[in-house]
Amino acid sequence: MSRRTRSPRTRRAIAAAVLALPLVTVPVAAPAIASVTTVDARGYLPTDFGWGPGSYGDYGYWGSYWGGYGGGYGGGYGQTQNAATQDATAATAQESTGVVLIDTVLDYGEGEAAGTGLVVGSDGTVVTNHHVVADATSITVTVPSTGQKYTASVVGYDATHDVAVLKLAGASGLSTVTTDPSVSVGEAVAAVGNAEGAGTLTSASGDVLVRRTTIDVSGDDGSTEHLKGVIEDDADVVSGDSGGALLDGSGDVVGMNVAASSGTSQVTGYAIPIARVLRIEHKILAGDASSTITIGSRAALGVEIDSGTSAAYVAGVESGGAAAAAGISAGDTITSLDHTTVSGYDDLTTLLKRFQPGDRVEIGWTDAAGASHTATVTLGTGPVG
Known about the structure:
- This protein has 385 residues and is mainly beta.
- It folds into two domains: 3-295, Thrombin, subunit H (Beta Barrel), CATH 2.40.10; 299-381, Pdz3 Domain, CATH 2.30.42.
- The chain has helices at 74-77, 93-96, 130-133, 274-285, 322-326, 345-352, and strands spanning 3-6, 19-21, 30-31, 34-36, 89-90, 99-106, 111-121, 125-128, 136-142, 149-158, 163-168, 188-193, 202-218, 224-233, 245-247, 253-261, 269-273, 293-295, 299-300, 303-306, 312-317, 333-337, 340-341, 360-366, 372-378, 380-381.
- The strands form four sheets. Strands 1, 4, 5, 12, 13, 14, 15, 16 and 17 form a nine-stranded mixed β-sheet that branches. Strands 2, 20, 21, 22, 23, 24 and 25 form a seven-stranded mixed β-sheet that branches. A six-stranded antiparallel beta barrel has the order 6-7-8-11-10-9.
- It is elongated and about 70 Å long.
């Protein structure tokens, strides 16, 4: 059997940085993590997630249930806490090595979220959960030991497997985590992260319960997605620990915290095996896009489009965005992009996927009075997909 989880989504991230209405405002300062509501499990063979060629591709089918959970959805979830008080202490210097705090601004200021990351390159390469940075329009990473803050950009992400790679601007000489892909049932572990988004690292001890298990996640639309091959442990993982380290007794990272139980006195934590995280990181750094891996940022026009109408009706315009610079206003209707006719929301999002931030394209629209206009705009950077 598989573990059943609940993903309390408030809204979904929209492809190509065009927002579909209606929107739900995201509450501020909400850390991110998922919720497990039942506890049936199924184990997997050690070879399921080995380093051998081709093993990574076997897991591309289970879908993207996180897609924006820690960003757009983290706000709503952050209000639901574990029933038990977290049993954790301040992380030691050894446990904190290479572990960083992540804070994000969502959708140009609609909300905020917090999580954790792992430094895997001294040049400022950081891995975290995709759901920690989803829907982010600004990402700040803090090194707890020094208090140094960096602006981060997204190199790429795999929403299906819930991994994202960040690059810190101007970083060099950073301490990195050490990793060990091996893990055994009964092994003592510690989950280290930015618990409850408090801005400090804590450490919660536990043991590995299942080496590989599956969790099922139910979306608000009634769909069920599967996340396979995660490590199950009984460390007291809470919101904000997402993207943090699951450490073995030697202080090596064996997994990346990704989910935890909620509403029960006995907390069960889940972590993505570090071997899989690093495989995805290597692919992203190599620019190896695939059906699950997205490289770079999304191009943004900076408009909110009513997806319930037959035309690309503009319901709102982002201040300072490409559409605003062109003179597009709420109440206008977008009719073309790059000389291609736009007949609705789907057309516009599909067309925008062809472009990168900074590209210049021609856009056509009609205003509320019916007059036609065209302008050449420079596309901005949209929220993380």
